[in-house]
Amino acid sequence: MWLLIAEAGVALFLLVFIVWWTMYLPPKKRDDEDDDPPAPPP
User: How far apart are CA 36 and CA 42, in angstroms?
Assistant: First the structure.
């Protein structure tokens, strides 16, 4: 019985860890985004 509880605890920990990891990752920067915005025309 304790083995089932331990396995359920590990599964719950993995689920929470994966959700936390994906929620707080910074958004990936795309290649077409420049560091500086384009200058306005004169």
Answer: 17
17-to-1, 22, 38 alpha-carbon distances in Å: 25, 9, 40
Q: For residues 28 and 33, what is the distance between their CA atoms, to the nearest angstrom? A: 11
pLDDT tens per residue, range 2-40: 999 999 999 999 999 999 999 877 766 766 665 666 667
DSSP class per residue in 2-38: HHHHHHHHHHHHHHHHHHHHHHSSPPPPPTT--SSPP
